[in-house]
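yo

u said u wanted the structure for the complex thing, so here. seqs first:
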Amino acid sequence: MAQTRQAAIGGIHEYPLRVAPGVSAMQIKAASLKAALDDAGLKWSDVDGLYDAGDGEGGGGLGLAAYLGLKPRVIDTTQVGGSSYEFHAAHALRDIAAGRVKVAVTTYGSTAASSRIAIGTGGRGGGGSWQTNMEGPYGSTLISNYAMVKQRHMFQYGTTNEQLAQISVATRKHAMRNPEAVKAMQDLQFVGVNEITVENVLESRMVASPLRLLECCMVSDGGGAAVFVAPEIARDLKKKPVWIIGSGEATKYRENGGDITTSAGAQSGPAAFAQAGVSPSEIDIAMIYDSFTITVATCLEDLGFCKKGEVGSFIGDGHLAFDQPGLTINTDGGGLSSNHPGMRGLFLLLEATRQLRGESTSQVNGAKLAVAHGNGGLLGGTHTGGTIVLAAD
Amino acid sequence: MASRPQPHFPEPDTKPFWDGAKEGELRYQVCPSCNAVNFTPTAHCQKCGGRDLAWKVSKGEGTVYTYSVVMQNRIPGFQELGAYAVAYVDLDEGFRMLTNVMVDGNPLELVKIGQRVRVDFEKQDSGEYPIPVFRPI
Ligand SMILES: [Zn+2]
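structre next:
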């Protein structure tokens, strides 16, 4: 199938601070939207589509439209965890292609760090749902859920800690080149704000076996915005558009006899590549949701960058860094070393856009095709996969 | 005695499972329409939507599919435990359950994928429902 040019990312903004006391999530969303519209050269009143993951207060699109003072013609409050923003891009492509909207926006704001939210180490308390009643009594933390995937992956395929640590090493290398990521690590009081080695990763504290501290994303504040536009708008913007050429959505959950080492990406990835008319081997740069090393490893396999079970040898030579030949990932520093306010799917789209514009702090020369893949929820339990394929103008 | 979080009610999907725990029974469902084993419990069959699921009692024996030893947590009832193993156990009747594998000693050394385990209903200070955990056979 030939590539189509039906919708583009026309403007982006990443909120620069990772520790932002005294600022609300809603304020981060509004400030980011203004900056993203400025980046595109569009006005507040141009917005006619509002996509939201309900991360601020007020019921998603309902409360956000009132707060922003917008009267959009399409309102979409899709909340599927950290991959919500890939879903928003998919829905924007659909709605723009159908002629329903011309300037659609998604925004994100979170004060997870300032609010001291125990995302990774808190449990599923509270209660009274069919899931929490079966999970709450067992002290399963979010990190231990992902760790169970790593444990099984190592058992089933012989994947090693050394191989997986390459993900952390490459990501930190990229982070050290990104001033906002460096400031994030300083503000969040990282023990060592420097490049790291495989040994550093293997010697870091065990949080939930077999996941160690340097394989886990940070908890930060942050946010941002993206502006999705129709082709006739894209032509007149301040910057070159980045085209959304493929999208895929999927969900997965614990199933009796199921394979925990395969994620929803095995469904969303092929769908996105098929729509885009490209194969994984043609992709220059991949922004893969790095909540943990194992998330990246599993999703690389599921998207088809290598066969299931072979990610260890695929990444073991350390080629994931921007200055090495072969596939490059997460050039902003990722969730491991730049920001993770809870749902970092938006940042995958933002950094992929920067790469295809030639604006990254770890630029891959001549990058033409990118994939952004978000994983939302729990990799070893109920989760979603959202895949977006992007092309330079 | 242990003081784990209790299930909360009213919650109609999982109530029969927890009533079973009080009787020392590990209950699961099968669907007479499509023969699926249904777990975690729901009033409908997750394979065919059928609504006439039958409750069965498991022998309580299974195999560790995967696990993680939690070294750091901020969950009331677990912060005091020290390191503990969270696991998916595949019961012999064909259902997979999130649970804990309890060992006397260091779980980092004693819990393994493929290990055979048996259910143990652990009484709780926190409430009337004992929690089904597993121990190596
Ligand atoms: Zn059925």
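Residues B 31, 33-34, 36, 45, 47-48, 50 surround zinc ion (CB under 6 Å). The CA atoms of residues 27 and 57 of chain B lie 5 Å apart.
cya
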